[in-house]
Design goal:
about 350 residues, mainly alpha
């Protein structure tokens, strides 16, 4: 999704040292996040559900892909908070932070401009400055929010690493439990008790939780074995089954969010599963996964171009067809395919490949 999408292999110079499961996780999360945007973009564009069945299927699918963004954050935390890797301030801010800033400017400004053109049905010169202002105020296309988030995490990464080095592991784990309780568990319990005021004292804390979870993966990795795979798979299947059942029966209806315990736990299970299977995944086609992984950031940045072309340009969404969920795979593949081709073309521009993609 961000710099971690292309820096995974650069953390280690040799092919053997490359953590293969991160490439596969990154590709899987990219597929999931594009599907998420196909769905969410269609609902936002139309503004309503035609019937209960349409809404139920929508939320089931959203629940199934809700783990994608947390997994991206955990991958970033695993790479940048690695206790064995030293990143200088010059490298952190001159390379990684600047890359996100450039991505926001080079992609966010044109996207904001396209939004203005689509909404006003014309082009004016002052739209250039208005587009820049939209980016500076966080009002470009919706998917760009992640870049603002990761930019903040990168800015504070040197401080976070310094704190982690000073604190005992036990204290860090206690802190993680407290963050999870404050940002995920307590709001969920309050909601279950009928309290609709589920405001969180620290709204962004769950994103820091995922980032720090990547750090803890370094400590847990040595204790992760293939023997845990059946148990983790069983838990994941049960969680997904219960979530789907609750949607269908409407026994317990709650919109999933990244801080929902279901999303948090499922994301952590997927990460642990990937590391437990690392020995098996390492034998797979490393060159293919590495190439696909290298395209992920470009795909993330550009896939909304094709979605917005239909949703806002042609005013056509999956819900405007007779069988919307038969159209869903076509829109998904179309957005993915178009973004993949565009990402490969942009990657041929050496400066862009080196400093942004």
């Amino acid at each position: 999704m961000t710099e971690q999408m292309r820096e995974c292999g650069k953390q280690n110079s040799s092919k053997a040292a490359r953590t293969r499961c991160l490439d596969i996780l990154r590709v899987a999360a990219t597929l999931a996040v594009v599907l998420l945007h196909v769905l969410s973009g269609a609902v936002v564009s139309r503004g309503y559900f035609a019937n209960d069945g349409e809404e139920t299927i929508y939320w089931i699918l959203m629940d199934l892909v809700s783990w994608s963004v947390p997994v991206f954050l955990m991958i970033s935390g695993y790479l940048f908070l690695n206790p064995g890797k030293r990143i200088t301030l010059k490298e952190m801010y001159g390379k990684y932070v600047s890359r996100i800033v450039l991505a926001l400017l080079l992609f966010g400004v044109p996207f904001a401009g396209m939004e203005l053109v689509l909404s006003e049905k014309c082009f004016r010169v002052n739209m250039i400055w208005r587009s820049l202002w939209m980016v500076l105020t966080g009002k470009s296309w919706a998917h760009m929010w992640y870049l603002y988030l990761i930019l903040v995490l990168y800015l504070f990464t040197p401080l976070i690493k310094w704190v982690l080095e000073k604190l005992p592991v036990r204290v860090i784990r206690i802190g993680m439990v407290l963050i999870f309780a404050e940002t995920s568990l307590i709001p969920f319990v309050r909601f279950c008790m009928g309290n609709t005021d589920i405001a969180i004292f620290w709204p962004g804390g769950i994103y820091l939780f995922f980032y720090l979870e990547g750090y803890l993966l370094h400590l847990r990795k040595k204790n992760t074995s293939k023997m845990q795979v059946p148990g983790m798979l069983a838990i994941a299947v049960c969680m997904i089954g219960i979530a789907c059942f609750s949607r269908i029966t409407k026994i317990f209806w709650v919109n999933m969010a990244y801080n929902h315990p279901y999303t948090v736990i499922l994301s952590m299970i997927f990460m642990r599963l990937a590391f437990a299977c690392e020995g098996f995944l390492q034998k797979k086609n490393t060159a293919l996964w590495e190439k696909l992984s290298g395209l992920c950031f470009g795909i993330y940045l550009t896939h909304p171009i094709f979605l917005n072309l239909f949703y806002k340009g042609f005013h056509k969404t999956i819900f405007d067809f007779r069988y919307p969920y038969l159209m869903l795979p076509l829109f998904w593949v179309g957005a993915l395919g178009g973004a993949m081709v565009l990402s490969m073309l942009l990657g041929r521009i050496k400066w862009l490949k080196k400093h942004v993609l």
